[in-house]
Amino acid sequence: MKHLAIIGTQWGDEGKGKITDLLVEKEGFKAVVRYQGGNNAGHTVVVGGKKHAFHLLPSGILHSNKVCVIGNGVIVNPEVLAKEIKDLTLRVGKKHAQLFISEKAHLIMPWHIVRDNIGGGKIGTTGRGIGPTYTEAIARRGIRFYDFKDKKRFIKRVKEELVWNKKLIKLMLDSYDIPKANRDKLKLRTVLNEQRIINRYWLLVKKLKDNPLIEVGDVGLLLDKYDQSKNKILFEGAQATLLDIAHGTYPFVTSSSPTLGGVYTGTGFRPRDLEVIGVAKAYTTRVGEGPFPTELFDKVGDQLRRVGNEFGTTTGRPRRCGWLDLTILHYAKVINGLDGIALTKLDVLSGINPLKIAIAYQIGSKKNKNFLPDTEDLSKVKVVYKEFPGWEENICNVRKFSELPINCRKYVNFIELEVGVPVKVISNGPDRKEHILK
Fold first, then answer.
1. Interhelix angle for 110-119 vs 151-175, to 10°?
2. Of 184, 210, 236, which one is at a domain's C-terminal end?
3. CB-based contacts of 58, cutoff 8 Å, min separation 6
């Protein structure tokens, strides 16, 4: 029995949701676990041509015979989660997985969102309060699901944190020199109203707890029970390696650990027998600020964005597009100990000729095949490419690797050879059925 971790290897948006949805049923997993991130993440699953966008719910939620888990490393906006569950129920009824939420998980409070919208723009955050919530978790000021065990306890915590945050927000407004018109847009008097926050949040969490398909408890104990009874667990990462707070292109990163280490801290469970699959696009995309060596500013970049529908699931922002960079995949292999790669959106490359893959960086007179996570260094590199002939055929209906165009197979084989990791799954279209198991 092997558990499985699905990790993003680039700057996110690699198609982890589809790979999770695909493998959870095929490989017989009992549980799907989100272990970090918040509703700044967006995973899209397409089944029978119908699109499902998830932000907090794990991508296995469409399977009614599974259990989906939100670990303690995830931060939860209860309003967003409630809406996501409501929308899902309207689409599929109650034919979805059970949901188990960690009682240790922190909640995004209104003051976190206000703070993010004042000071988060510099590094291109989503403005959803993610960074400030993680900040207060580390500073030991956070509000967790634990605090909803007793209403008096919850009220006490809100009162304590609201006093502090009002002072901090005033200081931020003055420090960033926010004009009055922009301050008015924040609607601070309403958003930071103490009684409104207490009533709203208490009701939201109570409704979640009263839902017969939702349980709040100790995730570590739950996963240990599944492990002891030989049930397989799939761990689904949000964001990706280059957005990791420790190992990403800092400071243009998220506030959690999307890499393998986040599995342990974000669940309280050590999966002893674990396979790690890194999800990579057949090209590279990035959202927000920061250096991007292989970024394309020509018609090829426009074609990748248009054909690949490269717009954020969460924000709708257009993604920056560029050639595949193997220095990044090798970096992700080392950090996560990858056992295999799931290569997505290979079909998007059809009709582009020639194709290029980055194999190294030129720094002065020296070639470097290692990725440079320091943003100052990364912004100065010249990319060394290997060129490949493209293919014209539409490959969405292909189900065997041997039936792909020869130039397509050469492209995939080169990735395996250079990174030193087998490509185990190929996604060649958005729908669940459009894939090749290699």
1. 10
2. 210
3. 20, 32, 33, 34, 68, 69, 70, 97, 236
Options 3, 21, 43, 244, the catalytic residue: 43
Question: Do residues 325 and 348 make contact, with C-beta atoms less than 8 angstroms apart?
Answer: no
Per-residue model confidence as pLDDT tens digits over 142-190: 999 999 999 999 999 999 999 999 999 999 998 888 888 888 888 888 9
**111 and 173 together in one domain:** yes
First vs last C-alpha separation in the chain = 20
Q: How many structural domains are present in the chain? A: 2
Both structure tokens of 318: 């257009």
My answer on whether 180 and 265 are in the same domain is: no
Confidence band (pLDDT; 50, 70, 90) for 124?
A: low
Q: Any catalytic annotation for residue 43?
A: yes
CA distance 41 to 313: 8
- Whether the bond into 389 is cis, omega within 30 of 0: no
User: Which of the following is catalytic: 13, 116, 147, 325?
Assistant: 13
Residue 29: domain span: 3-104+218-437
pLDDT at 44 over 90: no
CA nearest to 112, candidates 246, 250, 255: 255
Paired strand residues for 107: 76
Catalytic (active site) residue 13? yes
pTM (two decimals) = 0.93
| 219-270 residue pLDDT tens | 999 999 999 999 999 999 999 999 999 999 999 999 999 999 999 999 999 9
